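Quick one - inputs below.
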Amino acid sequence: MRVVAAMSGGVDSSVAAARLVDAGHDVVGIHLALSRKSSSGRGCCTLDDARDARRVADMLGIAFYVWDLSEQFAADVVDDFLAEYRSGRTPNPCMRCNERIKFAAVLDRAVALGFDAVATGHYARVVPGTGGPELHRAVDAAKDQSYVLGVLGVEQLGRTILPLGGDLKGEVRAEAARRGLLVAAKPDSHDICFIPDGDTAAFLRSRLGDQPGDIVDERTGTVVATHSGAYAFTIGQRRGLGITVATEDAQPRYVVGIDIDARTVSVGPPALLDVDVAEGIRPTWAGPAVGESPVELAAQVRAHAEPVAASARLVDERLVVEFHTPIRGLAPGQSMVLYDGTRVVGSATVDATHRMRVA
Amino acid sequence: MADRAYLDHAATTPMLAEARAAWVAQSQRVGNPSSLHTAGRAARRVVEESREAIAADLRCRPSSVVFTAGGTEADNLAVKGLFWGRRDAVGARRVLASSIEHHAVLDPVEWLADHQQAEVAWLPVDERGRIDLASLETELAEPSGVALCTVMWANNEIGTVQPVARIAEMCRAAGVPFHTDAVQALGFLPMDLTAVGADAVTISSHKIGGPFGVGALVLDPAAKVVPVLHGGGQEREVRSGTLDAAGIAGFAVAVAHAVAGQRERAAHVLALRERLIAGIRATVPDARLNGDPGTGAEERLPGNVHLSFPGCEGDLLLMLLDAAGIDCSTGSACTAGIPEPSHVLLAMGADPALARSSLRFSLGGTSTEADVDAVLAALPGAVERARRAGTLAHRAG
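Output:
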């Protein structure tokens, strides 16, 4: 097969590319330039990751190019990220990138250019099923990235190769060292790539500006602190609230509500965070779609959250998920991924949450 | 690599066997050209004989030839050095530069504007990429404030040749120092530096079959130039750094070859160029030739073919042709591989999408009909695929 190996310059995508070469595929390495930050202002020649990826491609003896998708990334991922926060939601930009860039723009472009598939270093498995390719959790549960791939459809899965899904991270790193890849000791990346210092609040403030307002106790209505932008908060957040007033019940306070228009952040005890039902929009399906009659599945709402047993059904294009045990802190904008055992069923973006029990 | 077609001679061209022999021979001898003993004098002799040979070939005085570590350094020395010299002498701060200069000139000019209070007048070009002499004339009407004028001899991307003798004459009449980057012109266009009369001319070794890392600024000894590199003052106190006798020996052989074979080489690549252009027009009818379509030595570099393929991204075409065994370029190289829309095409009035859809084939002395035929065989399929990929980029979401 002719395969585009997306090469970030990290350990995982490097080993993934190496294995494809070993398997006899005709592999071309592609590094995606997603931002244009550089000291020269010309957006080139300063990207260490691009250089690392190029050096790995040299060692593998494969052609290597940089695809500049920075404009599309800025429009589809960064602008969306800002717009979501601006409206008080909590987006997952990596999922958005997988949905719009890596497995859409890149895959479409590769197919048009005559390639058969795109390969990445994600930890998840694409396995043939009776009704087409299926997406399953990785063997390494600690590294499993099936959640962030939960937005992929069947057609995309059919052109996706994930060579690392059956391995433990430690094995992959050891393999990189054994192969003499220079990136073997490179640390894993965890941050949002366009916020390299990890300070999301500062990034949002620089882009969205100061919008000062109050932090209010949900139960008493008293102002307990002030903030410089409600958009920078996330439902369920506990740290960085700057509350100095002691609470009556001596319990920690969590963000339980964000009202962007009123510039108000409400805080309350953890019990107020429990969610029993979530409604999702923009559902995607990695196989047969869930219909109007409820299906018993497991729902995962964050990259490393425990899945929760739930029943899911479709009501007017909205995915309604009832959790059998309440989920603590689920924010609009987050993605829910549904699983049947290890198999990804589909995903949706949380639009509204409801609580049944009174805390 | 033998079965590949190399059509990127404007980036670099194969090293000549004779240049390699001279280079290797000198590299086997010890001696710093600045040392006073026998070994040093022997190395100095190689440098000076090379200088004299280059001067004779280019019709300039040996004392004009200032060796550098390449074209970029020579351009920096000319632009910054002449600016500082004129600023110190008469307080001039204005820089006249064509808007299609190579980055080795463009970026020093911008740096002077950002950090040294230079005022820049970017001289416009027409849709063929040729400088507007009327605007130069206007700029030169008030010459006392002008520190220098810099206009490249022939453009590296689109191959348009500038009327450098005329520009030099206008600058001389106005008393303004004139620099021209002749890196692409050498070996392809007739070059008589005495007849042209520029104050500073940049040439580079590896573009003409010599070793990398060597070049020269042919600099009028009367020109006041402040050095960029300070140190031992090896080259007339204008340029410091130990002279690379081996590289310079190879460079001199390459210059001799470039000049002696210029007419024959130009005719050879011109015939191939016309064959390539005609063949592409036949198979990809909407391809657009950028620059001057003329075949004369005052019009376009004989080995340059620069085309836009509407609806294609140049970097995808490059990748597909690469896979088909063809080495070419989108125009100006960038080491991280991220292409920018060419400032040259934008200055000529092209829109950014068309500027991004460009490809440059550049021919050299070793180019063959087989190279041209390889392009003609691979290009239509590549264009079709790149076009399919290109339409996706504009699809919503």
